[in-house]
Amino acid sequence: MKNISIFISGRGSNLKSILDKWKSGYFKCSIPFILSSNDKAYGVIIAKKFWIDVQIIDPKLEKSKDEFEHKIIDLLKKHNIDLIVLAGFMVVLSKNFFKNYKGDIINIHPSLLPAFPGLNSQKRAYEYGVKVSGCTVHYVTEEIDGGPIIIQDAVVCKDSDSVDTLTSRILRKEHTILPKAIKLILEGKIVRDGRRILINE
Ligand code: GRF
Q1: pLDDT band at 201 (very low <50, low <70, confident <90, very high)
Q2: Looking at the domain covering 107-201, what would its CATH class be?
Q3: 44 lines ligand 1 (CB under 6 A)
Q4: How much distance in Å is there from the Cα of 135 to the middle of ligand 1?
Q5: Do 1-102 and 107-201 come out as alike in CATH topology?
């Protein structure tokens, strides 16, 4: 059985959708620990409700980024983690991290990449006036929000939308595509063709 870990920094609604699906048997793996970069994150409470060990490593409390990442790498090695899922993890991983961890890393992003990478994507998409937005699960590479795309789902932007209503419709889609991507990866259904990700369902 593969081992996965989920990294969070905040509210943890994506974490909850992953754990609900995991509990229901939608995909099979072990989750030896969840990592939070913030001890006040609501996601920490969610993880504990599922009786999963939570490791808190706060970059602000570490001597350096190197030290912070070193601690994470130690945990990943100790638990043989095959897949890291970034679900609202607000820390950018360095080159060094990618050198030291060779498993897969995926991320959920609240826009149709490559549009609106970075922070506040929903607000920027709304203010830009796009008619369709959505969310993306992608592999994480050194380029922020620039790795190969695994799944996307679109949301139609309505004239009556506010940033909040658009954001919450996008979030509902996030809660479906992130567990789906995890399932596809765990079941070996992903084929890489350069940048293109093909799905063998
Ligand atoms: C989500 O919108 C996700 O797309 C982005 O950060 C947010 C995390 O929300 N990367 P939550 O903590 O999962 O509720």
Answers
A1: confident
A2: alpha beta
A3: no
A4: 10
A5: yes
Q: What is the pLDDT of residues 89-125, one digit of tens each?
A: 999 999 999 999 999 999 999 999 999 999 999 999 9
Residues 32 and 76: their CA atoms lie apart, in Å, by 10
Average pLDDT over residues 164-179: 98
59 CB less than 6 Å from ligand 1? Answer: no
Closest CA to 86 of 37, 128, 21: 37
Atom of ligand 1 nearest to the CA of 109: 4
Q: Domain ranges for the chain, please list them.
A: 1-102, 107-201
Does residue 87 line the site of ligand 1, with CB under 6 A? Answer: yes
CATH T-level fold of 1-102: Rossmann fold (3.40.50)
- Is residue 109 annotated as a catalytic residue, yes or no? yes
**Measured distance CA(65)–CA(97) in Å, rounded:** 10
